[in-house]
Amino acid sequence: MIRPVVNRVFRGIVVAVAAVMVCVDSTAQNLTDTNVRAVIEAIDEYRSANEIRIIKDFVELLSMPNVAVDLADMERNADHITGLLESRGFSTQRLNAGGAPYIYAELLQPGAIETILIYAHFDGQPVQEENWTYPPFSPTLLDAPLLEGGQVVDIDQIEGNVDPEWRLYARSAGDDKMPIIALIHALDALAENDIGLSVNLKLLLDGEEEQGSPDIARLIDEHGDLLDADLLLFCDGPMHQSRQTQLVFGVRGDMSVDITTYGAIRPLHSGHYGNWAPNPIMQLAYLLTSMRDQSGRILIDRYYDDVAPLSELERAAIASMPDVGRSLQDELAVHTPEGAGARLEELIALPAVNTRGIVAGGVGAKGRNIILSTATVSLDLRLVPDQTPERVRDLMEAHVVQQGFHIVYDDPSAETLRHHAKVAKLDWDESGYPALRTAMDDPTALRLTRLMRMISPDLIVTPTMGGSLPLHEFGSRLTAPIIILPLANHDNNQHAENENIRLQNLWDAISIYGAILATFAQYR
Ligand SMILES: [Zn+2]
Prior knowledge:
Blueprint: H1 8-11, H2 33-49, H3 51-62, H4 71-86, E1 91-95, E2 102-107, E3 115-121, E4 140-142, E5 167-169, H5 178-192, E6 200-206, H6 216-223, E7 231-234, E8 246-248, E9 250-251, E10 253-262, E11 268-269, H7 270-273, H8 280-291, H9 312-319, H10 325-332, H11 344-347, E12 352-359, E13 370-371, E14 374-383, H12 389-402, E15 405-408, H13 414-419, E16 422-428, E17 436-437, H14 443-455, E18 460-462, H15 472-475, E19 482-484, E20 500-502, H16 503-519
Parallel strand pairs: 3-6, 3-7, 7-19, 8-18, 15-16
Antiparallel strand pairs: 1-2, 2-6, 4-5, 5-20, 9-17, 10-14, 10-16, 11-13, 12-14
Helix pairs in contact: 2-5, 2-16, 3-5, 5-16, 14-16
This protein binds zinc ion.
């Protein structure tokens, strides 16, 4: 029998499996529900005995201002986190690329042959302190959500256990310092129970995520060998509204373009020139309706040619998700969603052309009887596998040409306007990026899914989230499958004022991280 690897950092010895209080049957295929339950029970017991200490550790971390542009603050955060990690036996490196630091940390296990890389970030969105009920960097524990009249709890006065529905309010409580504290205590829980990690553990902690991680690509290029792993767990974001644990296998890509259309070179009286002068607003309206129909289906030629269809497994996963469509319609007062009856989860697996704003003329008291010179629309284009920003741009431009426009990239001269029936200026934002979707039948992904079903029997698996993250920077450079494991409460107010974590979500994160690290390699 292979012995589970015991955390030498804490114990200094390898304890034979029989002596391990919670014994994981490490003969791979035989990891059972009972084994996983036993690990979780051991972790929960540790947590129950240490709740106040865990909360205080989290309060300490959350008390440190962490807006990425304040480099001195970010260094202080990095020092503190590095200290937490090194005292658990991690070796750490500060990866600086000019902006806020990234922390790389590794905890190698003697005998472990597989490696899990965990990504989280320790910077937070800027704060507008006047909008917060309690100061964002003075973490405050409340006995209920603020909106439900939660009252302050003095952490030093708590006797016994806390109510898991209590919430800790502070910037980054949900997004995204929670995984750091949860991991630290998952490791402590395992150590206290003499349960070893089954894998090598690597961490990449990002100090500038909320700034768009401008250095991440260069960093991965320079330190790709450090990030070598069998699985990349992306620990960020809110979990499903149903509060069921969720694995998310992808994100959409994103790009944007502003399109301006042109009338006469100066605004004209709509009575004297109406029906004669070309109207840029109407040109824009026709152009937009030529791009997509009323159900959201994109009408641009060959736009769907590159779109990877959902696999059988992905369709089945969506079919078994809780259907939130009806309640969303009620909540948001939507009689008829777009999408011709398809589910939200299917629709966000498709590309989208979204009109995010139009600027032209005035309305209400600012309405004037004129025909304008220009009108501009801003579009955001959500991409899915296997679309590329380059190809999408080509298809979009071909469509604009097909609609009779001459394309320019700078403001057109009078000469240009005289020589072309219709002119459109396209202003592309160059920071667009492609989507990423890990195949659900990837062998490592399948293993994680099955293990997660043991840990959380009500697990939801989702082919993709609708939103965009630049995960392709990892996907295009690393071989490990990338899976998102979001564990913050869905109503954590991330990015806004009064950000918070529900304590039960923190407790669950400790159990889930601990169970994965203790059993992953034993489960094949
Ligand atoms: Zn985040």
